[in-house]
Specification:
about 375 residues; about 80% helix; about 0% strand; membrane; Na+/solute_symporter_sf; transmembrane helix
Amino acid sequence: MSKLRVNCVEENSHSRLHVAAKSRWEEWISTAASLYPVYVTVGGVVACLRPSTFSWFVNAGPTSYSLALGFIMLAMGLTLELKDLLNLFLQKPLSILFGCAAQYTIMPAFGVIVSKYLALSPSVSVGLILLACCPGGTASNVVTLIAQGDVPLSVVMTLCTTLGAVVLTPILTMILAGTYVPVDAIKLSISTLQVVVAPILLGSYLQRKFPRAVKVVAPFAPLLAVLTSSLLACSVFSENVVRLRSSMVGLSVSSDLSLFNRVQAIFASEFGAVVVAVLLLHFAGFFVGYLSATLVGLAEPQRRAISIEVGMQNSSLGVVLATAHFTSPLVALPPAMSAVIMNIMGSTLGFFWRYIDPSDSNITPEATDKS
């Protein structure tokens, strides 16, 4: 009897050590996945300095872009429990519905306003509006966690807006950008269904059908997804770097211009116009998203979640749709630039909010972190 008891103790101790080691290992992978803004920023710098680094991926496009986004969405499906998300939806239906409505009204409206205000070229305007009509991105969930926002709300909003993108993204793009170039809403809808919704549903099916295998793979899914997303965004950005850089060099070498006038000329150029447009679009999403959630009386964690969710788009989807359905490479430039600019802005806002306690919340920061 004592021997059996000793064996049991030894087995339990070994099990606890194994779980602890596994937890630390998974925590390291999770931390690496949360560095998505760093990967995109570094990749953007590499794309500026040496665009040929991504030529192998660019030359295989747009097929490589579609496959990459499909893989990202599959990874998302593997990590989502649709049953749990449905329960969360039943717990906070009004907050979720309001957040989804804000996503598909605030950003599309400001996409049109910014493009008209800055008098952007037709191709860039279409790209900006297409970006504005995309659903929320998965990076928003990480930023919401950093900002001590309502993480479950952010996750459910991402899933709901992503599923809704099959109908809403094509229709809104056709209505708002159809004045610039012809937009085939049906083809956009089919592409969105193929590269976004189908992989998510496949991932959810695999999770139910092969739980053991998925349990082994799932910890790696977020990291692989953010690395693939970084590769996708930076590759499209590198396509446009050569031409944009040459126009900037032409402006910067003009010896008869002062430093201030050179900077002004660069921001007045095509490159500068895209940067300013993307900055204004995401700033409007963050600010108006937070303001609207405040006006309807939501608590601080929900305000932060909705602000971040509205302000951070699925730029990868914008890149794929732009390269697959529009002839001008400039249409894909706003979504590609957004991947870099949006993550820098969102991460900065997240870290700012991290040090401001959401005082009117009923949950503690510790509980939010654990979620």
